[in-house]
Amino acid sequence: MQRRRRWIGGWWYLVPGLAACGEQRDADDTATTITVTDASATAATTDGTDTGVADSSGGTNKLDIGVGTNATEGDVDGTDDCQQDIDIVFVMDVSTSMGPILSTLADDILVVDETIAALGLPNPPHYGLVVFVDDAVILNSGAPYPDVETLRADFMQWSSFTSTNQQVGGGNDNSTWPENSLDALYIAGAGFQWRSAGDETLRMIIHTTDDTFWDGPTNANGVAIAHGYDEVVDALQQGSIRTFSFASQIGGSCECEDVTPGWSTPYQGKTPIPEATDGSVFDLDLVLAGQLSLSAAITGAIDETMCEPYTPVG
Predict the structure, then answer these.
(1) What distance in Å separates the CA atoms of residue 269 and residue 247, rounded to the nearest whole number?
(2) How many CB atoms lie within 10 A of CB 242?
(3) Is there a smaller number of Cβ atoms within 10 Å at the N or the C end of the chain?
(4) 178, 68 contact by CB (below 8 A)
């Protein structure tokens, strides 16, 4: 299968795109203030047209990422006969600013499910859900949801939860800007009932967050953070699980801090998690701005990785 992943301006682009708006966030006193000057990347809008972003010379760069295929049933992009089961665990930041993402995904997951069904794969897809603030929990006891409508109902419930500014387990307010992506990713990798890896199953995590993360083991905002960066990457790699992150570039208490390390740029010199796990990263701010489609990005990620060998980095 021909790979179509493109690294543009510090971000992977797979499919026609979308973007995000701001929120009330948690505060990290140690973050440094940056200015973003690289505006060369562009993506297709939801109506199929390109959006141009002026570069530093005053011109406008265009990116054409549409790909024509002649796919048939069981053939993801028309290049080979691909038959795999698909397991997808959604790892969702449910802090205050993330409500619009969850409500959007509640509708888009139906589109994703219909697209997967049209592939004529051996078995229906399995879906799981992990939610996190400074704490994290896996839903449905780590078992696959019985159907996509039940999953959608949980997305809607957690979208409403974001307005409470509470921890997932309750007990205290969310008063800090970093969130617990690492424990959430680890729980998804270790706690979901994945089907057999390798040729039989494509294992995917769809992860969303608009900020940085706590790196454990530590205690933050009254919550025990159990897992560190290296441990999480190792667990995902050992499980042959690809991570596709929807992450912001700018965040923090001032909405001016670089929050890309670990997602689209290295973290303390280490490979970003999506790249380390043979996945990709998308600009969450484009989703919230209506310039990047969650369903198109997710189905594009499936198309990109179905029946491809798992090739982690680092």
Answers:
(1) 19
(2) 25
(3) C
(4) no
Q: How many domains is the chain partitioned into structurally?
A: 1
- pLDDT number for residue 305: 94
Half-sphere exposure of 157 (CA within 13 A, CB side): 10
Provide the CATH number for the domain around residue 114.
3.40.50.410
Place of tokens 């141009």: 52
Handedness of CA 245, 77, 293, 90 (dihedral sign): negative
| The two structure tokens encoding residue 20 | 């995000």
CB 138 within 8 A of CB 198: no
Q: Does 42 map to a domain? A: no
Which DSSP string corresponds to 35-60? Answer: ---------B-TTS-B--EE-TTS-E
> Is 0.90 surpassed by the pTM of this model?
no
Yes or no: say if 55 and 61 are a contact pair by the CB < 8 Å rule: yes
227 against 222, higher pLDDT: 227
DSSP one-letter code for 33: B
- Exposed, middle or buried: residue 311 (CB in 10 Å: 0-12, 13-18, 19+)? exposed
Maximum Cα–Cα distance across the chain: 53
pLDDT over 90 (residue 27) = no
In whole angstroms, give the CA distance from residue 59 to residue 70.
Answer: 35
- Sign of the alpha-carbon dihedral angle for 14, 137, 129, 149: negative
